[in-house]
Amino acid sequence: MVSPFRIDKSPIEARLSSLLSWRHGVCLVLGCLASMAVAWGQSRVNPAVPSALATLVIWLPFILKGFALNLVISFLAMALATLLGIGLGLIQISLHAVVRAPARFITHLFRNSPWLVILFVVMLIIPVEIRVPTGGKIPIPDWIKATLAFTLPVMGNISEIVRGAVLSIPTGQWESAEGLAFTRSQTLRWIILPQCVRRIIPPWMNWYALLTLSTPIASIFSIHEAVANAQGAMEAAGARPEFLFPFYLFLLCLFFAYIYPIAVWTRNLERKYPVGS
Amino acid sequence: MDPESNSVGCPWSAEQPIVSLRDVHKSFGTFDVLKGISFDVRKGEVICIIGPSGSGKSTLIRCINALTPIQRGSITVEGQEVNDPKLDKLSLRRKVGIVFQQYNLFPHKTTLENVMMAPLKVLREPKEEVERRARALIAKVRLTGKEDVYPGQLSGGQQQRVAIARSLAMRPNVMLFDEVTAALDPETIKEVLATIKELATEGMTCILVTHEMGFAREVADHVYFTDGGVIVEHGSASQFFTNASDPRTRQFLSQIL
């Protein structure tokens, strides 16, 4: 079937999207490494103290351990946001206005609030520990709270993506299902939602990338993720100003190397399944 | 026919009209689309509804299986009242199948899956039996070999025949056809009309909205001409096309034939 909703890209846009490829990613990473080498070359003023780059190598495992926490937070927050977001999105298209209104409110509240503000509120609202009726106490680590905080805005956005995807399915699909005696929920489950999956995946991956890139905000609450650990490492090694450039450049490369392939993959999926296909 | 598909407490025998409309009124906002439509369809009859565009033909046909609710009047299908807030839609729609102008096949499912879906998911019938029936229906609409093909790879006429098979898979007693050939190429219209004609000769009760006058003349038992939300004229096919009495009908026919 010819897709009536396909938006043709302008030549400039098409050229820009073809610019985004693996080769350029590799070039950028190499560029980063080259500038680090320059930094290393310039920092050998005193052979008695280890160079900035040598310090970085010493602290590398510590920073990578922090990065593992970034990944764990991003996975958990994304999983939770997906579950809650799909639920919220489906409530948003409920036939009952009374049910629809709160879902719409929650969606827009979290979509349109700064992530940092949400993070502060969640960190302050959730207690340090929960008392269990049997007498014990379960502590809630800060990184769990931060995960919950990152979940909320992504949940709001996924909710809106789901709502939009459902509404983008032609009404003829609903009608023919209704004519075949499908109920509304059967139609959603067997006919509408399976067709939405394709449309949801590219924006969903986009939000995963944004979420992962935002996890360093958690360093404000000294959660031991990559950025906080890198700052800790610089502190411990004597807080020399020449650390700043190689350390932050390394963090940039680290996140870039993880996210860039996802961005390329998303772009390919968007090209493969344009809206309306 | 199994007894549960007829609603309880509605005595209906095959001698009575299978579909009966009485004084049906429907408006969208302030616009009155149907202004008191009444007619009866007997089991096995083929009814064609013709008329200028905007005369409410499609609305009329969609009211019969409750896709469009009506404001006033009565529609019964095998004795079951359609204009009823407590309508058992499942029971009604098992009895009445509908095929649309735009086919509306499920694009993420193959031909076979499209045909099997409603009996499997809605009626929860056993898979082997549904698949056997679906394959037979696909053969009936002459699409053997296309079972595992997705709708996007089929021509309009082929898609429309899959849509007919999909509707027949629910084993309806009445079939509604809403301008099913209006979106098709002239060459593929024939294939679809042949399929409908075959159904009609097998005794399926068919209600069609159509612009195919030749087909209406050939297949229809009764022809109804609607204009401005009312039935202007009706008669047997031969009588209607040769001796139309109402000036509006004559004008319409002179434009089309």
Please describe the topology of this protein.
The complex is a heterodimer of chains A (277) and B (257).
Chain A: H1 11-19, H2 22-42, H3 52-92, H4 97-111, H5 115-125, E1 129-131, E2 137-139, H6 142-168, H7 171-179, H8 184-214, H9 226-236, H10 244-272
Antiparallel strand pairs in A: 1-2
Chain B: E1 19-28, E2 31-41, E3 46-50, H1 57-64, E4 72-77, E5 80-81, H2 89-95, E6 96-99, H3 111-121, H4 127-140, H5 156-168, E7 174-178, H6 186-201, E8 205-209, H7 213-219, E9 222-227, E10 230-236, H8 237-242, H9 247-256
Parallel strand pairs in B: 3-8, 3-9, 6-7, 7-8
Antiparallel strand pairs in B: 1-2, 1-4, 4-5, 9-10
Summarize the structure.
Chain A has 277 residues and is mainly alpha-helical.
Poorly predicted sequence stretches spanning 5 or more consecutive residues of chain A: 1-7
**pLDDT < 50 stretches of chain B:** 1-9
Q: Could you give the order of the helices and strands of chain A?
A: HHHHHEEHHHHH
CATH class of chain B: Alpha Beta
Number of domains of chain B: 1
Backbone shape of chain B: globular
- The helical percent of chain A reads over 70%
How would you name the CATH homologous superfamily of chain A?
A: MetI-like
Briefly, what CATH class of chain A? Mainly Alpha
The first-to-last residue Cα distance of chain B is: 41 Å
Separation, N- and C-terminal Cα atoms of chain A: 9 Å
Number of discrete domains of chain A? 1
Beta fraction of chain A? under 5%
Kindly state the percentage of residues in helix of chain B: 25-40%
Strand order of the largest sheet of chain B: 6-7-8-3-9-10
Number of strands of chain A: 2
Q: How do the strands of the widest beta sheet of chain A line up side by side?
A: 1-2
- The 3D shape of chain A can be described as flat
